[in-house]
Automatic annotation (TrEMBL):
GO terms for cellular component: plasma membrane. GO terms for molecular function: zinc ion transmembrane transporter activity. This is Zinc transporter ZitB. Residues 32-223 form the Cation efflux protein transmembrane domain. Residues 1-21, 318-327 have a biased composition (Basic and acidic residues). It is a multi-pass membrane protein. Residues 238-301 form the Cation efflux protein cytoplasmic domain. Belongs to the cation diffusion facilitator (CDF) transporter (TC 2.A.4) family. SLC30A subfamily.
Length: 339
């Protein structure tokens, strides 16, 4: 049985196919870079203001701004590297760098939240004086800057894990500015300084929730987990039910290279007399339309081999088992980019 590496895209129905891929564009890159410059610049003003006024909320907000700046810098680097062409050593290019940036962003946020919680407890045990006037001025200016950066990021591709991660950082910083304003007002009129660390802790709890979600999303991609819109058992049933001549789907692996870039591999068995080229074209089209999978590798199994999946942990010795290509026709089709 010969190897069939048919790259002909004829017969694909592109109607209704839409792309789930994020736009790693120069526009996104510029938005993130401007946001970084604004955030990094104002961070120093907020840090100095926090130290002079004695406000933990401002210092915490300055810490948020520092991680914001780091997050935006990583996001910018992610877009910069992500647009590089693939080469012989990195056949998927540098797209995974963006996921690494998102993972680091989440870790940095979680560490910051722990630090703020520790500092807040120390402040509650040993209250320190806070100058409400300078605190208010810096907090209001910080709110303006954060709103501007958040607005710019919202004009980018908000479905992208890196843009979303940067927005989580900036949103946390924006809430920090609001908390600092509320604390400054309360301290000015009542003199009750514990509100400063209390609001810092409440803010940290909100940020922690978003950071945890971002951590799980980025870690799922790094661990090559199945994308959220794909249930493998449902995918197999859908293909068998809707592709004429397809009788069985096995050894299915679906993962993401980066945010919005899912890929898949699988084995399929066809009924006798079914044209493999037509069947594979239908499978490819369905994967693109229903699951956003525009890159898949499909091996046609004609039932003449007992080959097992080398990645199946339940099969003893599977890792040492090579597919017998004398009994398989390997069809590797690249689905065209959705229109």
């Amino acid at each position: 049985m010969s190897h069939d590496h048919d790259h002909d895209h004829a017969g694909h129905d592109h109607d209704g196919v839409h792309s789930h891929a994020p736009d790693v564009s120069a526009s996104n890159e510029k938005v993130v870079l401007v946001g970084f410059l604004l955030t990094f610049g104002f961070m120093f003003a907020e840090l100095i203001g926090g130290l002079l006024s004695g406000s933990l909320a401002l210092i915490a907000d300055a810490g948020h701004m520092f991680t914001d700046a780091a997050a935006l810098a990583l996001s910018w680097a992610g877009f910069r590297f992500g647009r590089r062409k693939r080469d012989d050593k990195r056949t998927f290019g540098y797209m995974r760098f963006e996921i690494l940036a998102g993972f680091i962003n989440a870790i940095s946020l979680i560490l910051l939240v722990l630090w703020i919680a520790y500092e807040a407890v120390q402040r509650l045990l040993e209250p320190a004086p806070v100058l409400a006037g300078p605190m208010m001025v810096i907090a209001v200016l910080g709110l303006v800057v954060n709103c501007g950066v958040f607005w710019m990021l919202s004009k980018g591709d908000t479905a992208h894990v890196n843009i979303r991660g940067a927005m989580v950082h900036v949103m946390g910083d924006l809430l920090g500015s609001v908390a600092a304003i509320v604390a400054a007002i309360a301290i000015y009129f009542t003199g009750w300084t514990p509100i400063d660390p209390i609001l810092s802790v409440l803010l940290s709890a909100i940020v922690l929730r978003s950071a945890w979600a971002l951590l799980k999303a980025s870690l799922n991609v790094l661990m090559e987990g199945t994308p959220g819109n794909v249930v493998v058992s449902d995918l197999k049933e859908t293909l068998v039910a809707r592709v004429p001549g397809l009788i069985h789907v096995d050894h299915v692996h679906v993962w993401s290279i980066t945010s919005g870039q899912p890929v898949a591999t699988m084995d399929v068995q066809l009924a006798e007399g079914t044209d493999p080229a037509i069947a594979l074209s239908e499978v490819k089209s369905l994967l693109a339309q229903e699951y956003g999978i525009s890159h898949s590798t499909i091996e046609v199994d004609f039932g003449q081999s007992d080959a097992v999946c080398a990645l199946d942990p339940d099969v003893e010795g599977a890792g040492d088992h090579d597919h017998d290509h004398d009994h398989h026709a390997h069809a590797h089709h690249h689905s065209p980019k959705p229109a």
